[in-house]
Amino acid sequence: MSAFLRGWWVLWCWVVFGMSGVRGFAQGLPDVERLLEGNDIGRTEEGYEEMVRTLVYLAHHPLDINRVGFDSLKMLFLLSDSQADNLLRFRERHGRFTHAQELLLVRGFGERDLENILPFIVVGDGEREPGERFRRSRQEVLARVRARLPASEGYRRYYPYEFALKKDYEAKLRNRFHGPPLGTLVRYGYRSGRGWQAGVTLENDAGEGYFSRHQRAGFDFLSAHVQAEGGGVLRRAVAGDFRVRWGQGLVAWGGFAAGKSDVAIGNEKSGGGIAAYTSADENGYLRGAAVTLAPARQVECDLFFSLKRPDGTLAAGDTAAVSLYEGGYHRNDNECAKKRTLKERTGGVAVRWNTRFFRAGVHVLGYGITPRLLPGSRIHQRYNDSGRRRCLVGVDYKTAFRGVYLFGETAWSEEGAVATLNGVRTGFSWCSLAFLYRRYGKRYASRYASGFGEYAHTANEEGIYGGLEASPVENLKLSFYADAFRFFAPRYLATHPGWGWEVLGTLVYARPAAEHTLRYKREARPEDLAGGSPAVRRKEEWRYQYTRPATGCFEWRTRLSVSRYAKGEVRECGYMIAQDVLYASRRGRLRMQGRVAWFDTDSYQSRIYAYENNVLYGYSFPAFYGRGVRTYVNLSWRPCRGVTCYVKSGFTFYPGRESAGSGVNRVEGDKQGDVTLQLRWSF
């Protein structure tokens, strides 16, 4: 094995240093790694897929920067709220743009910002192009296969003679996976130039069976939708699977939701109402019908109804569900027993009033789950959502006055619990500031909420957030935020109410020849010690990245990450050194990203997350802990127009480790591999 590692090291050094004298060029898609790290997508596959899908759509339907507003600019993800404000203010003062390079005159825009968004914007004359709504239709067929080696414990075959007791043998059979160690995804999408859209998604995780008694339809997850858009009273209609985004997310918000991230001033949400659901995530969707109406000028109204069968763990007698099951896996008898055991009815209505000076909305959401959910036996579960006849009402607003922007939302539940979020942001010639205050009652609960906060549940939390973005000198950017928060009741891993704080600072110095990025994050949260007594868990992360464009086709990056962890008497640390090489042919038909990384951490507590390039729409943000080496290569090849082939292959070596994981996911040995194949046909 050591010879293999030495061979990889020699090859990598040759590629990196042998090509270091050449200069790079802008590629079609932006740096997805920056998108992930800048928007904190490390723990949500759905958010990442939506970001990439939106950018692919904008590559074919770019935004006209001479007539789009703030909400449309938020679709670019790469721009902070302050950059969007500065762009709109510059356009108002100096008139329309005549060339995209003029964006460099906007305060806070640099060469890298322009390079990232250039594929998704156009400079129009400010007038709607004749026949713009009648663009040519587009279709996409996507097929993906992925596998991991060696196979985990769940695929192992068992025989009666291996067990002394019959019940032990039967228990192992209930845990054994039904399908092969191969995950598959098949997707078809259609979008016409007249506002029609339709799609079908079929997905199986590795280990899930095909056309078995548990998967009679062949695939574990099936999703479909049809969407129509118009310019009259009926603005949008969706049948099938869809999502809802209202206000600041305190009542309902599906899909990507900006949180605390390197984009310190990017916390304001721009609710788009209803939209078709195109992700492969098995939890964040509604299923039924929805419409958006425009009964009067400057007034829009959303109405929807949903009926679906979520997964749940049933209690004795099947009269109540202990909890929702949101893992999405249905690989063995135990997991399949939780599939579609509940019934959920959801309905909602929203009215939005848009004027030149302010925007306001009222949202009402109601849902019920049968059988009802039990709160759970642990102390932090006492205020869990019962799913029984829930009704929530929210009011949101947005307004601006002389460069000061105000936004917020307040919501009430049928039990009288209140959740509120209010923010303000403003900008000066060289910096921008933002402040947010949030208070979510411990009894407030909405199954579809996703408000800004420390946790995703939008409950049991109060906090004050402050963000700063500054460009004090040319080529230098600074972003910083500080967040202080407290909890009214116990939370997961903390049996006592407590408080915490978090700070993050990022410094970027960009020159044409190279870019330096320094990132520091420190956080403190309440957590219990092993005996149950309260304590404070502290974690600290340092990251430095050096990026140098290399010749016409190559670019290389070097990264050092360091983490430190402390709780009670425990002190741990870890580090990772990664070398990346990126290649793109001059015509863009062949692209390659590769990495060799060395990591060493004391345990899982001092783990380090590192994004990996993957196939289009694919997601890979693993956590590395222990000691080992990780290497991967990701290729995309376009042999002809409309057809793209993707291959991603990775290998991880853990010297001295006998196994990894636990239970049915336990893998024997010190080596692990993964491979993903994908074919995309767009026409």
Mind explaining what this structure looks like?
- The chain is mainly β.
- The chain has 8 helices and 33 strands.
- The strands form 5 sheets. The protein has a 24-stranded antiparallel β-barrel.
- A hairpin with a 6-residue loop joins β11 and β12.
- It is globular and about 85 Å long.
- Residues 1-28 and 126-134 have low confidence and may be disordered.
List the helices and strands and how they pair.
Elements (H helix, E strand, L loop, with lengths): L1 H17 L13 H8 L5 H16 L2 E2 L5 H4 L7 H14 L16 H7 L3 E2 L15 E12 L16 H10 L7 E9 L4 E9 L16 E9 L4 E12 L27 E4 L9 E11 L2 E10 L3 E3 L6 E4 L8 H4 L6 E12 L3 E13 L19 E12 L2 E10 L4 E10 L3 E10 L20 E10 L5 E11 L12 E12 L4 E14 L5 E16 L4 E14 L2 E15 L5 E12 L6 E2 L13 E2 L2 E14 L2 E11 L5 E2 L6 E2 L2 E12 L1
Parallel strand pairs: 1-2
Antiparallel strand pairs: 3-4, 3-33, 4-5, 5-6, 6-7, 7-8, 7-9, 9-10, 10-13, 11-12, 13-14, 14-15, 15-16, 16-17, 17-18, 18-19, 19-20, 20-21, 21-22, 22-23, 23-24, 24-25, 25-26, 26-29, 27-28, 29-30, 30-33, 31-32
Which descriptors would you attach to this protein?
mainly beta, two-stranded parallel sheet, 8 helices
Quick description:
The chain is mainly beta.
Structural class: mainly beta
| Tally of individual helices | 8
Uncertain stretches: 1-28, 126-134
Largest sheet: 24 strands, antiparallel, barrel
Estimated helix fraction: 10-25%
Radius of gyration, in Å, reads 26 Å
The pLDDT mean sits at 87
How much of the sequence lies in strands comes to: 35-45%
Number of strands: 33
Q: Using the alpha-carbon principal axes, give the shape.
A: globular
Distance between the termini: 45 Å
